[in-house]
Design goal:
Order of helices and strands: EEHEEEEEHHEEEEHEHHEEHEEHEEEHE
Mean pLDDT: 92
Radius of gyration: 20 Å
Shape: globular
Strand content: 25-35%
Oligomer: single chain
Strand order of the largest sheet: 6-7-12-10-11
Structural class: alpha+beta
CATH topology of the largest domain: Uridine Diphospho-n-acetylenolpyruvylglucosamine Reductase, domain 3
Helix content: 25-40%
CATH architecture of the largest domain: 2-Layer Sandwich
Number of domains: 3
Largest sheet: 5 strands, antiparallel
Amino acid sequence: MKILEYQSLKKLNTFGIDVTAKYFVEFSSIEDIQEILSNPKFLNTKKLILGGGSNLLFTQNFDGLVLKNNLKGIKLIKEDADFYYVKSAAGEVWHDFVMHCIKNNYAGLENLSLIPGNVGASPMQNIGAYGVEIKDVFYELEAFSIADKTIRTFSKTECKFGYRESVFKHELKNKYIITSVTFKLLKNPKFNTSYGAIETELKAMGIIEKSIRTISKAVCNIRNSKLPNPAEIGNAGSFFKNPEVVRGKYEFLKTKYPNIVGYELENGNVKLAAGWLIEQTGWKGKTVGDAGVHKLQALVLVNYGNAKGNEIFDLSTKVLESVKEKFGVELEREVNII
């Protein structure tokens, strides 16, 4: 393994922010991780595990060690009457993994097609789209302990999944390196097409009989029509979480804004559409220098060229302030700020 110094990370984060890492190394095996972390030079050095670089915003150079996860491999480890248990190394590209599952008729991931990033980040963020979250298809994961250099298996309960949340974003942040994730996928598909515009897109496609392939294609079509391609315009997908409010707050807002978009939750609260809130404040399509709010999806902040990370962060702060001032609702950033 070659350890690089002052390595550019511009091509390794989907915002395309031009920052450097003081130290940079790529690992492709557990042995690589053990070797790197056993190096006395990095014992007290802060560390950042980098996957697809799709859910973070660099606001400064990283004065520490960046470890790029290149662990690869997908395999069916077992099956029973109802489920396939599919294990993927953390360095696999998420969409490639979804396509592998669809090709092999492993159902459950089709609504999560075309989400950027790697498999290892999926449970960390509890990624979700169109009515499905990772916790719905999760079985277990393996992670390398940075402190004692052992592999630990985490169950679904131990991951403490929440809305775009897990134990790895809080009490275990920077303490483990996720090495593999095992998913519990259906043999007999249960289609989830009521959320968003999936049904409308399926009709536009002329689909009469649904399948995991057609649903995946519909999701890809919707995402491509609404969301910018990070390879063309720097972005990290949805920058903000959809806020949850108590029903009383929602009913009050609905009297003032009859078209407000909300989804009822099992706990009685209502989840508001952050994109709708932002759009009503007039930010959709606006730019400040090379930083901007995307013209088709207000949830997405973009780098139109050479925006610095702190310029995008400052723009996000202005958006947060506008939404709070107009609606009395506090948005929360979904993207990790470095």
